[in-house]
């Protein structure tokens, strides 16, 4: 059962997570699941070469999502390239019918504008969501899923409906069960009930169940 939808801890024996792997390192292991994408920090003038490789590898059945992809205002020297690469990945998701895992830092207006522009059919997930309830509400109104990791604002989590919530370890040293325990406490539901919701959401988003 996948509960951790985004981790950078690559482990060929871990079949219960979606491992985020660099495109050049993609070498799928039996039973493992992956996400692949052009990270906004890494987008440079040669991004189209990486994109060609992404287009090929993203067809592999072990690749459950494109990402992390997105926009990051703190990396200022490539912001227009970031936008080009992100829009190309938005279209790729529609072509291959796989969800998009999004890295967004201080670009939520642009992100919402893109969602309205493209009307995607696949789910869009903002990963590592640690912003305030106001931004959470805006994203929820636009049908985003929000994935929560080690750091978050409890007041934002309180307002995320159970059917729009996902969990992740990202780069944390905590395991997914301790992150889930923290979220369950904020939401005042049991660990098991939260796992049940998360499992249903993973099935719906990544396996179209
Ligand atoms: Zn990440």
Secondary-structure topology with pairs:
Elements: E1 4-7, E2 17-20, E3 33-36, H1 47-57, E4 63-72, H2 79-96, E5 100-105, H3 108-118, E6 124-126, H4 133-141, E7 145-148, H5 154-157, E8 165-167, H6 176-187, H7 191-206
Parallel strand pairs: 1-2, 2-3, 3-4, 4-5, 5-6, 6-7, 7-8
Helix pairs in contact: 1-2, 6-7
The structure holds zinc ion (ZN).
Quick structural summary:
This protein is an alpha/beta fold.
Bound molecules: zinc ion
CATH superfamily: Metal-dependent hydrolases
The neighbouring-strand order within the major sheet is 1-2-3-4-5-6-7-8
Quickly give the structural class. Answer: alpha/beta
Low-confidence stretches: none
> What's the number of extended β-strand segments?
8
- What is the number of domains? 1
- Overall average pLDDT: 97
Radius of gyration: 16 Å
Write structural notes for this entry:
This protein is α/β, with parallel strands linked by helices and 209 residues long. It is built from 7 helices and 8 strands. It has a single domain, classed as TIM Barrel. It has an 8-stranded parallel sheet. The protein is globular, with a radius of gyration of 16 Å. α1 runs parallel beside α2 (79-96) and α6 (176-187) packs across α7 (191-206).
């Amino acid at each position: 059962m996948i509960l951790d939808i985004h981790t950078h801890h690559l482990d060929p024996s871990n079949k219960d997570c979606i491992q985020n792997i660099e495109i050049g390192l993609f070498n799928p292991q039996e039973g493992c699941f992956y996400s692949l994408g052009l990270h906004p920090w890494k987008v440079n003038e040669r991004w189209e070469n990486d994109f060609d490789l992404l287009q090929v590898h993203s067809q592999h059945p072990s690749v459950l999502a494109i990402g992390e992809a997105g926009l990051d205002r703190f990396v200022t020297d490539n912001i227009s390239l970031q936008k080009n690469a992100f829009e190309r990945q938005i279209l790729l998701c529609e072509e291959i019918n796989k969800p998009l895992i999004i890295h967004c830092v201080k670009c939520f207006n642009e992100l919402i504008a893109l969602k309205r522009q493209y009307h995607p059919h696949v789910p869009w997930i903002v990963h590592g969501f640690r912003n305030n309830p106001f931004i959470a509400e805006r994203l929820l109104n636009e049908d985003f899923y929000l994935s929560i990791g080690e750091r978050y604002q409890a007041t934002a989590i309180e307002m995320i409906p159970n059917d729009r919530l996902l969990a992740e370890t990202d780069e944390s040293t905590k395991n997914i069960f301790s992150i889930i325990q923290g979220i369950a406490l904020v939401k005042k539901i049991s660990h098991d009930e939260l796992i049940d919701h998360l499992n249903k959401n993973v099935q719906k988003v990544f396996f179209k169940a």
